[in-house]
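Lab notebook page, bench 4
Experiment: in silico fold of construct C2
Operator: M.H.
Input chain length: 139 residues
Purpose: comparison with the prior construct
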Amino acid sequence: MKQLSVNESSTVVLNSVEELRAALRDEAASGAYCVQLFPDPRSPGEPGLLVGVNGDRGVLVWSHPGLGESLVAVNGTNTEVVWYGFGSEENDFPPNTELPLAVVMAAAAEFLRTGRRPTNVEWCDEDDAWDRRCATAER
């Protein structure tokens, strides 16, 4: 299981979910933080999974540049906007997108195994999530 985790400042080869957990723990030591996972970042248009961790919670964003698709995992517990760091930037996530860490890690593990969009969460178009139009979330 060789995948690459890429953020603004580094690339890390991951061989296991445990290595992903360690990378996220290190990045999130000072607060909510995200890493971007790609099956092969050298291939333009490949899908990626943004994984954010904040203590016992986290966020997920699936992006597929080749298809112009960007989906956020929904049915979370936050009622307000939440912020996660990524490199030198801060990213905001809409209400209803912060999930239990176990769910986030299961999704990341599935992506590491398959390179495909995880199936254990409900997905919604990012714009629709901001407009709170995700009653019929896509799986």
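Observations: The chain is about 20% helix and 35% strand. Residues 3-130 form one domain.
Next step: discuss at group meeting.
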